[in-house]
Each structure stands twice: as structure tokens, then as C-alpha cells.
Amino acid sequence: DNWVVDKCMFDYVAGGACACCGFTHLFAPGGLEGMINAFSDLETDAATMELNAAKASPWPPDMRDQIWSDRLLLRFKMKKEMKVYREFLEGVVKDENGGVVDDDDDDGSDSGEVDINDAIPILEKFCMNELSPRQIQGIFQLPRSEIPEVLNSKYKICSAFAVVFCTVVEQVANFKVTGYPTDARSNSNNGDNSEEIFEQNLKFKKVGRGFCVDIIASSSDVDGGSTTNEKVLRMFLQRMVGLAGPTLLARAAKSNATSDDGGSGSDGDADGASSEVIEAKGPSFRSDRRVVRLMIARYWADRLIEKYEEVKKVKKMKGGPIPQ
User: CA nearest 28: which of 18, 20, 36?
Assistant: First the structure.
């Protein structure tokens, strides 16, 4: 994390601030504190921890303000997109049932809700039956340079936070070198640990594929008899369900928080070190690393959705069944 701080400072000073994305054009009553309080519903540290981290930052005030405002803005935009994944997964379940959803509760009442977990076996069957191993392997790879491009083109963020983001992407690519423990947290409400398992399965290959998972069961040529790794595929589909919410990043139950280097601090939430650790160690980029991995998962989910809709459209035009 100290390396991230130093590298961002160097890159920011060398490259200069982006005039179109500077903090000064934002309407932020109450300054940085007012902005942080305004985004208190986002999946980030508690407002007091955000302020403590900002005060402990070694960056110049204008750079710090840009970083924190766009960091919160990115989470706000990403949170609004969660409904896209829920709607898709609900649609997959409805397609399977011919548009009729069997959602009766045990007491005989009709909840009117679709269990999106039912989409996992449906999508797994679709991938195994409709896509070749080469097609699936093509979905689950992402060049490192593509992630900052998504930040710029999709979320329109190219200020000082873009410098931080690019540096954190490099940190994620070389995460084993840091010696830090797993960043992800399990969801304390439903026991969902899909983010943690996804992080453990995520790999980075400098030559060729970039960020990837071991989606192919063997190392032989894809068209020469290799098969799709069903366990890894199922792992990602479970992570894909997590993209639908209810939270952007899973929150663990409040307990003795652990800092990036394994130290203990006071109570904290799922998105970063406690204020005590932040004051002692400086800014933590744990939350940013989680967002990078979330963006990777969403990128792959979007490509899988495109492939599903493409096959569905072709089958509908030919009068065949919707891919099950």
C-alpha cells in the first residue's frame, strides 16, 4: 500500500491533474465531509473512517479530494447497475419455466419473487451445451489495460482517482507479492462467500490472457479434446448471482477488524481497515482492490449475458427452443 501511495504521487505530479474532472467543479456543500456523509449508504467504510483515512492521506488536498469524491462516485454508479444482473437472472429462470415462475412459499403463499439462485444450473447447462471450451475461455480473460479503459469510457472517471485505480489494478495483478491476506469478506447475512472464492480463483498471466480463471480442465489444445472446468464455471456463476446485490460489496459482521498486514484494530466494516489502523498505517487500498475484482467479474458477466442473449435470439429466429 505504501508503494501505491508513492507511485500515485509520482504519476499524478508527472502527469498533472485532469482539468475536466477536477474536484472544484463539483457541488459539495460541507466540503469533503459533507460529500462523504451524502454517500453514507454506499458499500464503503463508515463515514468517520473515510474522514480519518482522508486526514491521514499524504497526498495534496486537491488530489485527495478528487480521489475520495470519484471513489465514492464510482461505487454510487456501480450500485445503480446491480438491478441489471438481477433482471437478467430472473429472466433466465422465467425462460426455463416458460415465463411462469413457481415461487410458492412453504406456507402456500405466493411471494411474487424469483429465486435468482435457480439460474445457476440453467446457465451452467447453457455454457456446457451451447458454448465450446474455446468460446468459454474467450469469455473469461481480460487484459490489464482494459480495466482502466472501462473506468474512463463507462464511468467517465479520468481524474486523480484514475491514477490510483491504474496503480491498484497493477497491485491486484501482483497481489501474491504483497503478502496480504484475502481482501474479500463473506456476507454475514446469508453466508455468501462467492466474492472470497472468486478472489482465490482469480489469476493473472503476463503473457496472453491477462486476468483469467482456470476455466479449461486440461492444458492441451482447446479444440483437441479439452473440456470446461465445471467447478470453476459454477464458482463464477455463484459470483454472478452476488452481482445482483443486495449490497455492492459483502459486509461481514462487526468484529475485531484486521488490517492489510494482519494487525488487529477496533471494530470495522467489510470495506476496509478500522480507523485505528488507518491512522497508524496510512491509507488502505483494500476496498479499491475489491472494486477492481468486482469490475472484472462484471466484465465477464456482461460477456456471458451477451452470449446468452445472442444464442437465445438465434434459436428464436429459427423457431427452436430457448437455450436451457
Answer: 36
Residue 145: CB atoms within 10 Å: 10
Element (H, E) at 195: helix 194-201
Q: Torsion over CA of 22, 27, 28 and 31, rounded to 10 degrees?
A: 60
Is 255 strand, coil or helix? Answer: strand
Cell of residue 184, nine digits: 474479500
State the Cα–Cα distance between residues 286 and 262, nearest whole angstrom.
12
Q: Indicate the pTM of the whole model.
A: 0.80
Instruction: Judge whether residue 255 has pLDDT over 80.
Output: no
CA-to-CA distance for 286 and 93, rounded, in angstroms? 35
Torsion angle, CA of 96/98/99/102, rounded to 10 degrees? Answer: -70
Residue 171 CB contacts under 8 Å (≥ 6 apart), including other chains: 3, 4, 178, 285, 289
Contact (CB, 8 A) for 229 and 133: no
Q: What percent of the chain shows pLDDT beyond 70?
A: 65
**Do the beta carbons of residue 306 and residue 199 sit within 8 Å?**
no
